[in-house]
Write a structure and sequence with these properties.
The complex is a heterodimer of chains A (84) and B (450). Chain A has one helix and five strands; from the N terminus they run ββαβββ. By secondary structure, chain A is an alpha+beta fold. Chain B is mainly alpha-helical and 450 residues long. Helices cover 59% and strands 6% of the residues of chain B. In chain B, helix 16 packs antiparallel against helix 17. The chains are: A alpha+beta (84), B mainly alpha (450).
Amino acid sequence: MIANIDKTNSLTKCIVYFNDGNVHTFYSLDKKHKNSKQDKALGMRRLDKMLTGTFKAKFETAIIYDNELNGAELAKYKRGVRVN
Amino acid sequence: MHLNKLTMSKTMRLPRHTFDFSKLFMATKSFIDSHNESQIELKSKLNANHRATAEMITRLYAKQLNNALALGDSLEELPGFRTYNSSMATLKGCTVRTIMNHKKRLKSAGFITAEINHGAMGVELLISEDVFSLGKQTQNYDFSESKKSIENIKNRGEVKNFHPLVHVQQEQKNINSSVDNKERRLTTPPDDVTFGTGTKQEHHRNTSGSTNKKNRKTKGGAEILRQNQETSGSIDSETGATTNTLVSASSKFGNPGIKPKVTRQSDTPDMSFLLGLVQQFWFYAKNILYPEMILSDVENEQILNLIRISVYKNFKHRGKGTIKDYKDSQKIFEKRIDMVAKWLDRSPHRWIPVPEVYFNPNNDRNGFNKTYKWYVKQEALKAAVRNDLILQKARKEWEDYGKGNGRYKQKSRLQLFEIQKKRISQIKDENLNREYHNLIHKYLQIQHLK
């Protein structure tokens, strides 16, 4: 059990624009266990896994941002493929 | 009314106590003299060195007390002398152990009455009341006079705020200084102005480095050189580790070993060079193994860290390898990447994991580190093939020589042997050398039987 799972603690977030018109924001889980140090690359890898696995062919566009106000764009996916 | 009060306070003379250095030194001298007179044994007497340490303590302690008085402390009870053994040792130009020995002698003599250890905050020495006491050695000090004398000091704006432990000796030694030391030592800083110690800035005198630092550097260099001479040839960075294993592997196939190398300080690579190697390696590996992969800066950084730890072993033997060694090992790493690429090309069913798994130091199953065995095996095979070709050539030459044909038909048997031996010794492979000798013996036996 990873303590304090909270979207405010996440380092990155992913906004997914689904084919059916829905838009959802997913927040990364950046820890391996509750006492570990936050790992941004790990969180991004998990979001990548979600986009290229679970949601493959279900979304039009997905963008990963830094989880802060006006956060920088880190990665962009189009129809299940990473483009940037 | 208020104005009157202010003018009154300005004109009022405040009596102030300071410790007079001359009285204190006299008291120290008389204390030590009387102690020496009372002692019969030479061992228990205080010698000139102990006397010097005692005088140093007196001087510094008086300085501290005077500073405290200048800052407005009432000093109803005398505080101890706060210092560090190491700073006293530096000041005196001896080791800490000497200072400790001197303190022990001064304690037994009664000059130091007690010592309180404050750990990282240094030590506190309580000095005998015969030397330091508020009533005996203090004198009244005219505050307004001191203010006047401060104004007379040249360049009073450009001052350094030396630590009291450091600057006292410098002041005394610096007889060429244009600053009037006598006047400065008598004055104390006024309460409302931060005046420092009143030492003039002397940039032209402070350009050379510390002698201690120089000594330490030369010692370090000598130590490094000595270590290199002792561990000659054991180059053991990641490169070194690779080379060593390769040497041991190749010695199986007859390599007599590499000549010992002495690492020079100038050849030792710095961290920026080594990190550059990591980046170069990742650039090469990404282009060959993961050409279509898009990675963000964060992911790249993580992979570089993993490569540094798993492939380069975190440069834990950084001081032992030279730049050339690292460049050689870089070539080996690139060869290993090429081998992986070739292995992948052979079948479409073959795959390697994503970079963060492939270069993970904990990946024993399908990580990059496993390719080292491939490399050793390949190199060993190459060496074996090369040896076979060389021996084949040598056998052919002997056969041709026996028939009176070939390139060396005009030479004697000894000359042919020496030519071949010279050629083989250039390869520096012990196994090859041994096999060549076997070949010669066999050839001679056959000739003898004929």
